What we know:
Distance between the termini: 90 Å
Amino acid sequence: MNLKIDNLDGTGPQDYTAAIDMSKSPQVVKKLNQPSELRFSLVTNGPDFVVPTLGAHVTLGRTNGQDVFSGYLVKQPIYEYLGWGERGPIHRYSFVARSEEVALDRKRLSSRPPFVERSAGDALRQLTDDLLPGEFDTSAVQNLDLLPWYGCDPRKKWSEHAAEIALRARASYHVDDGTIALVPVGANRWALDESDPAFSPAGLVLASSDGMLNDLTVVGQSEPGAYVTDYFVGDGLTMRFYLSQNPFTRISRYLVDEEYKDAELSSVRWTVSDPQKVISVTGGELQIAGGTGVDGQTTILFAENIELGGAVVLQHGSMAFNGASDAVIGGLYAATVSIAGCMAGFRVSPNGTQSTIQAIVNGHLTGPAITTVAGHQYAFTTRLYAQEIYRTRQTFHSSAHPAGSGLGGDAVAADVRVVLEVHDIDPANPATQVAPSTVLYDDVIASAPGFCTHALVNATKLYCSIAFTRLIQAVDTEVRSALPGAAYTTRLVGSLADGDECTVSSDPALQFFSPYVPAPNELIQVHYRGKGTSMARVTDPSRMAPHGTDDGVRGAVLTVQAPPARTSIDCENAALALMEDAGPAWSGSYQTWSDFLPGNAEDVFPGDAIQVNVPSRGADFNAIVRQVTIDVQDLAGEHSRYTIEFADDASNPLAVELGAGKLTDLSNLPVETVATVGQCFLPDLTSAEITQVSSTTVTIDAGFAPGPGEGIEVRRSDQGWNQGNDRNLVGRFGAQIFTVPRLSRVQDYFLRRYDSSTPARYSRYSGAVHVDYPL
């Protein structure tokens, strides 16, 4: 073996093999989804010895050109004086080097938007390119599974993000000789068989325990629960209306808060196509001055997908037009960016020396038009409201569902309300700063795609300046109101300075701003999801084998941290994945020489699969290598002692991170079996609404017409859902529209669908309607 060190002083790699102190043999430690480490010592061998410097590049390789380790020195050497030799004083220097991802870990991650619906490999390649573009070969990074959502915390190092991404895809990463690889766990398989002549019984240590789980409760994150609609009526004075439940909402956050302070658009946030070089950043503003005249050629695309789930507010910016323009501003596209393919956006068309602004929906112009005025500024805002917060399920893996074929990951269908508004500001008239925005479009797009490309600009010919752009994951609440005899319109939730009309506080309450107090008898609807805790209990009766007085049940309550279990369906899939690997739990280590590696392997790496077949110890199982320690004993002969540590998923899950969670009430949690997961619940009543209110009755449209053997169960509280409990029951109805008694000014009704199964199946979440009208 050869040890070469490049002190980065311009002299290139130098051979330090002769200086290696073999009394402390070099040791390489490789851990699964962690940086590798090399420890070695050098002894001065003459006056021309150069002590390697901190940050020097180190390579320990075989004579056939295969690297055992490559990386950088990460610590100052430990110095020891050994005495005086024939050529002068003798010193020993002990070093620690870490693998080449150190070069990436030294860099600060940019504050970038979360990855949305991108593959694990694509996310890792992007993170690498953000930090050191072109420095690493990422061709060995496989795409693997899609990540529904992955946020990049700039406080974490590249290697920490790489480990988290690998965990979510049940993969292993490693960095060596300028190459980054991301491959499925178990891509390489080796056999450790005691019938092999090279097998060393003395080198094998095994440990086994009972890892059986056949009654597993998984607890995840806070989840969106009941589909709630609160009904209020204005009196001309009241500005504050208290909600019936705490709305579920993700943390309100800016996905992008762009004020164009840099000299050019950041590639972390934007992808720019500009053949004519008409896009620039000048004086703190984005300037567009022309285009090719061809649709889809001059574009500014948001670097990530937009998830059409919950509430999303896209503020495309305060724009000043400098000439007649032809473009789409703030377009959302399910496929190719083109005017005809625009799902929703603002169409700007030439109108003499000015321009006309109109909504474009599914490629067609719709609604009122605004003609621009010279000197005015126009703030374009798109608001998206979907009852489904997440548009795709989380993916979970086990040894039976490896990378690329996980449990979950399916799409979630939803309708999306789209509101397109323009705020016309005249700098000469301060009152326009807080004047209401003009709504160009307010309607529901049925079966909307879950994810869209967002183009801030798709310019044929555009002449304007843009002062800011914000993409906001907003409070997941939709507010609508109707004056007597008029249709419902969306009330804008947000900031008064942005031309919005109301906000939702943590009380929880709906607070209107003073210019927008609801008029007498104005009807108000607030739509949101209630807040709960995601959880699921899954059993496997087929693996409950009674033994004497033991009924064979092996139960546990586990909190899943990663991948995040965002809904109870995610918890079901996490439970299935964990229970697939439950059983006898094996772990161990095997020590052997490099000449006798399992299966005649040239090398063994963390993430490789080991099939252990040692009948004399009752061992027949598959495991994954978690750590490899290489002690170099003979440099010239290239003989090393390998210690291979391995474990199966029952002993240590590979693709799920468990942690401590909050104590929660599990007493009413439905029990599902592995055979019935996904079959125990009926579809939810997502569109239940009140159609008429009197002083003594309320008429409800459940939004679903029951068939034979089906019905709608209505209760006064969200509990007790079964055929034998009538304590809080309002009634059971076989029709879509029905009338229930109203007993007070404030009344709550909870609805679930049920069928004639034994026991009856119900919806997973309730439809909840809350009325607060004067009697």
